[in-house]
Specification:
Strand content: under 5%
Distance between the termini: 22 Å
Largest sheet: none
Shape: globular
Structural class: mainly alpha
Number of strands: 0
Low-confidence stretches: none
Length: 138
């Protein structure tokens, strides 16, 4: 179970790295955001830093819980908005991942409208409940 959670987090970090590389410029704020997610989940900073040097295969692990799926999507949208510019390629990438996670397109629009770069736990829970209806339960 722990290994599965660790692998899911590693794939999430790789997705975030891919997103941050789309515009050709990985900003320091993006690196810090990704590093902080890794550190908060027990990944050493040096391990996270090694992910920044390449584009990764897009892998969505099987059997993600609804909470993990939301975490993937939420972190992608938050990272996309961190530089206060939205690029068409970033939106397409996030939409593609959302679809692979089982979300309808509407979930992306809801999050793009409502996610801020700093969100407290209450706001995060509200956003998760808001997007839950767009998640395919099958």
């Amino acid at each position: 179970m722990v290994k599965q959670k660790t692998m899911a987090l590693l794939e999430q970090l790789k997705l975030l790295v891919n997103l941050s590389r789309i515009d050709g410029d990985m900003a320091e704020r993006e690196k810090t955001y990704i590093t902080n997610i890794g550190k908060a989940n027990g990944f050493p900073e040096s391990s996270v830093a090694t992910l920044f040097y390449t584009t990764h295969e897009v892998i969505i692990p099987d059997n993600l819980s609804p909470d993990q799926k939301f975490s993937y999507l939420f972190s992608l949208v938050q990272l996309m908005k961190i530089d206060e510019r939205l690029y068409k390629e970033e939106i397409k990438f996030c939409s593609s991942v959302a679809a692979k996670l089982g979300y309808s397109e509407q979930a992306m629009f809801e999050l793009m409208l409502n996610v801020k770069t700093v969100v407290d736990d209450t706001e995060r829970k509200t956003l998760q409940q808001l997007t839950e209806k767009y998640l395919d339960k099958g």
